[in-house]
Records
---
Amino acid sequence: MSELESTYRRYFPVIREKCRRLLGDADGDDVSQETFVKLWRAGLAGADPLKVTAWIYRTSTRLAIDLLRLRQRRGTPETVAAIGGLVSTPPSAEQALQTRREVEELVRLLPADELECALLHRIDGLTQAEIAEVAGVSERTVRRALRRFEARVRTLRAAEETR
Amino acid sequence: MNAHPSYLELDRFALGGGSSATRSHAENCPRCGVHLSRLAEPGPMPAWATRIEQRGGARWAAWLRLPRLVALATVGAASAAALVIAVGPKRPPAYDGVKGSPSVALYVRHQGRVALWDGHAAVETGDGVRLKLSSQGFSHVAVATIDGPELTELYIGRLSDGETLLPASWTVDENAGTEHLAVVFSRRPVSRPELRSAVQAQLRNGEIWATTLEIPKRGANR
């Protein structure tokens, strides 16, 4: 087995599952591929798995945000479907639609670093300490970003209810 | 409060890390169990992945000091120090060690040809180096280089029963000298302080087993 193949077998499932949680299967697989190619070219095959997994979470999340924003700028029909993948296990169709609308709006409105923290927290279930490690920022910065995110969600929900 | 570990923690657990609490949770949680089972299914390597190797191989910048060399070392159970066994050209490239003890084989790739280290020859700039381990019941391994007081972790992961060819490999850089390569077997993931202590003391007991290979390098920079 070549080094490339062993690296693929070791890390690609982690990348694939991470990206599918965030984007669904189709777009998730595109971002998975891009993330793995970057990992290989960065020479991370033999690095500490703790560092590699942090790198995977950081890189794939940022690539996913780039993809979502690109879709919005182009206004393609896939936007809603892509953002729908952000809802990991919606408890109901109504809530899924609401979350989809929220995230669609948030992708457009939020700064990338704030969105990154929110996605890592909401979709991947990372603790604040883990987000700080992955994003390379302090826990205080993460707390502030998540507070801003929650405030924006509350504002959006309030606006929805008044319509 | 979310009772599940984060996906990051689960992923690290699957790669050989994670805490005992994560292990305990994963063994009893269907949702986390499903996630871990998916991680065990890489599937066949697709064409796009096979093509990227043609555009340049991986290097790990943190360890660019080894010359080309293929080494075979075994850890003797009764030995106080690591035993490096030279493998002659007529000897088959197999493990050699005391029964019941873990063993470490170092392979060196030089100009496309892979061989076992003879225990003495210097490796050269650009050589690739890779380890094959026989766990003998130890479930985890950590590999690190030692440069004076500095210990740099190169690889941490789980071991399967029998022999394991580590997925990691490293490229030797141009610096001449001696590379001190520590390999630590354990029955659970070890922290960095534990790893350092095990290497310094060359611990060998039922829970942890350490050895250090000293690999000469013939680099351009002397």
---
Amino acid sequence: MAHPIVENIPSLRRYARALRGNRADADDLVQDTLERAHAKWHLWRRGSGVRPWLFAIMHGVFENQRKLARNRVQAVALEEMPEVAIAGAQEKAAEVLDVGAAIEKLPDAQREVLLLVGLEEFSYADAARILDIPVGTVMSRLAAARARLRELTSELAAATGKERVTS
Amino acid sequence: MSAARDPIDPAELMAFVDGRLPPERARAIDERLAEDPALAAEVRQYRAQRTALHDRFDPVLGEPIPARMLQGRTSSRRALARLSIAAALVLVGAAGGSLATRIYLERRAARLDLSAFAHQAVVAYAAYAPDTRRPVEIAAEQQQYLVGWLSKRLGREMRVPFLGDRGLTLVGGRLLPGEVDRPAAQLMYETARGERVTLFLRAIGDETAPTAFSFRRDAGVSTFYWVDRDWGYALTGPLDRPELLDVAKSAYDQLAR
């Protein structure tokens, strides 16, 4: 009988971790989201799902953080982008194992859609409402994200043994 | 071979990957995959992406939730910034000579603070009342120690109301985050049926006239909360309103200073 906001903390944290990449930033994102959710709790419409509502709030907080970050540390952020090493098969395997590093290279808008659908298992309609974009845009971003991720980890299937590449 | 066919709509392919196509369409795509190894490989990779995401991030679901996330309001830097903006507004109102504005803003701030306080109590209830293993930090058996410790941490002499005549036995208590420099305490009681009732309390701001009981209802639990001078109390539990009010009155009488 936990409070609905509390019940959703674990999945908010999962999503934030995947979105932000590191724990500190992710938990800050969750924290700010919870604060805003508690403050706006009276605005939540009964009958509508609490979970999509919370994720929509998190999307808004994330947008704000990005705006602030853009103004502050644009140059640094670009330089800190981790490069995916392309070397021997061993390294490729390691790189493949860390899907977290690969999704960091996706544009934020694509990563959000990919995670809402592929990790949080929201319906396309819910993802559209959360991000306040048309369903068609959800679909095109999802397709683009998956194709780009496939490029980034093009040896994924080979390295995980699901499909041997003849070399 | 596949070149002779129309390309699959990307949106439909995504829905196929996510298992969200109606069976008929899914079968049609299955047939396409059978004759198009490249497309089949693409789909396999997309599905592997889904699996990899879950493998990588699902463990976060099992991580213990940081205590600060269980508060109704927090003391993060941004919250403090907002508070100082609110304070600045009050000052602006005062400097502008608009007494009405100032009183309005102060009352509004007090109301917001009280509702945030009650919300904090409900969130704390939700977090700890269902806990069967460790609902409290210090159990009722060590009541003297509990009272001494909480008094020390809260910076004021704590009283633990006796609610046995209302059918509530003390389980124990714990210290909780409240506001900056205002830690909170939660005392937990239990009915014979095992229902839990908590009394949440902390300093709440400037000394004010005692408020009437306020009531709020959240999923399955009711809360009566009130302010006595500068101290806020919230009694939360799954009881009927009259029953809870009766308990609240008893607690109020014993806690009144």
